[in-house]
Fold these 2 entries.
Entry 1:
Amino acid sequence: MEYKVAVIKGDCIGPEIVNEAMKIMDKVAEKFGHTFRYEQLLLGGASIDAYGVPLTEETLEKAKKSDGILMGSIGGDTTTSPWYKLPADKRPEAGLLAIRKGLGLFANMRPAVLYEELKGACPLKDSIIGDGFDFVVMRELTGGLYFGERKTVVEDGVLTAYDSLTYNENEIRRIAVKGFETAMKRRKKVTSVDKANVLDSSRLWRKVVEEVAKDYPEVTLEHMLVDNCAMQLVKDPTQFDVVLTENMFGDILSDEASMVTGSIGMLSSASLGEGKLGLYEPSHGSAPDIAGQNKANPIATILSAAMMLRYSFDLDKEADAIEAAVKEVLKQGYRTVDIMSEGHTLVGTKEMGDAIAACI
Ligand code: NAD
């Protein structure tokens, strides 16, 4: 099969890590008989340097026409880079927000995987993590408290602030469908997280999630209150497969989930909209402190490419091959500097990419 991949290499370490992800995709293409047609697009700082704005209309249109978007991280050193002397709406991050909005990406998926070989980086006890864990947080991205009406007014002489948390049934249904579709490609369990004992928006959330669940009889659905979920993530993270939740709860829980894996250079992410198009990028930033030194860990970006194959192109076997190659290389003892520990072999960005490509 042939796929059109929009590639946004990004800033600082972005080009280094994306080059390695493309190396792995090329190996997959060769091995499984596919063609990935890359179109390079500029976003963030690189777009400011070339066009004076962090995202052009043309870039957005080209991204819309692709089958999937692979991105490195964007942005620079926020204290020294001239990009941060520009007004807020012209800075690199404004481009990222604009492309997410322009593509209608309403779901954010962040896997939290603890590999057995990297157990030492996890702050939890051995007795809790067992052989490691593997779950994803599916967070609603464009509704809820962060997008509701807000105001600060004086009432009876007292300063009073209001933030409103609003969801309609359609917004809940489309993210719930993403959660169940993802579970169907995994271990077929959804934990829907809400605060239905207090909030009306959560009671509607629970009702709509239960309706959607009827279309996925193979998937086990459980409901969990958000305060309990925050505890369960550190008490027994192995119980989760897909954690489905609204915007603010997801913001907090996905950071907690990243923290328990212990390693920023390993965490991939996807932002998804209607249909199959998605934007895939590492969870970390552009790491200006190590840019251009062949030090960055490319694994988060390589695993993001694997997610693109699985969720946008339905190439499950190919995605499995990439994930297995990453595990194999960790088993062989290769480590970039961020995950290095005694008794292992220190390698650079390119060498890590080569080692993973050799295992495909
Ligand atoms: P960062 O994630 O870039 O770096 C934090 C620390 O982690 C640094 O010490 C860095 O060297 C290290 N690190 C990050 N990724 C690594 C990797 N793959 N391998 C090895 N080490 C790695 O966060 P920051 O320093 O706060 O932000 C730097 C820039 O990135 C800023 O301009 C920020 O706005 C931007 N940013 C972009 C995104 C994105 O593109 N989605 C996300 C977060 C931050």
Entry 2:
Amino acid sequence: MRPPEVDRVAASKAAVAARRARAAVKNAVVEGTRSASDVVQAGLADQSSAEGGLRVRELMLCLQGLGPVRVDRTLQQLGISPSKRIGGLGRHQQPKLLEYLDSRERRATGAADAAADAAADAAGSLDSASARGRATAVTPTRLVVLAGPTAVGKGTVSTYIRENYPDVRLSVSATTRSPRPGEVDGVSYYFVTDAEFDRMVAEGEFLEWAVVHNQSRYGTPRSPVQQALDAGKSVLLEIDIQGARQVRASMPEAVLVFLLPPTWEELVRRLIGRGTESSEEQARRLATAKVELAAQDEFDYRVVNSKVEDAAREVVDLMNIS
Ligand code: 5GP
């Protein structure tokens, strides 16, 4: 049954007002005067509010550095349909989305504080909240940690980044393992003796270090990373999961990326296919990989390494530098 004319006019007026209200919410997020998590909280508290009626996808598109492809991928990872409105989020979806937004905001705020002051100066008549929002939006992520299970291709992805993205500094680790054929001291690793590694540990020269595969020690020399960060460069660490946890503890602003294989079978194939380790060593690495895969939820982002160039691009995208 058709509603009376007067109701139709009222309904259409209400729809226009609701659209306007949602647009105002989005503008506030784009300008940085309101955080996305604040919008989600408001939408959950009152489903009939402008925030409650806003689609999650539209909200995420307001965030700096997130294009439609990454928004859709993130929504998929969070298990949220693109048409879902904030007010309609399910019990399990709510904390997942809030956690995702909070961790983005925590990282952006920490890194952006210094830039915000400069932006506030430059902005002149702008109020400082909006200046802070702008600074947050443009500040690149400086320190990215790439971890993941053994043989997932971290080395290949980081080598690809070194060769194709000159703006990214790759940290060169020290290790006590022997060089493999083709590896160059000072480029692949600093190959050091046990005694030298002991000395570096004792003198606090490592940002993090770990025994990997119960065998050799690997560590990230602190000062080159600090120097690059001080010079405003973006730095990539390709390290194991124990190391990633240490970096998170000492540098919470770091972004942690977990590289995933397309499937477990593919991971096994890559591990065996490398052929550089004995079968005993392969079995040990496979066991480690299983434990490592279980740690993926501790990470900020997950990137599937189906194609090296795509995975590399995704990692570099997180740095917001190109
Ligand atoms: P590979 O011996 O195959 O070169 O490396 C073995 C593992 O050590 C890889 O998972 C690699 O990510 C990790 N690794 C390399 N450098 C470091 C480092 O500086 N610190 C930590 N914690 N792990 C590292």
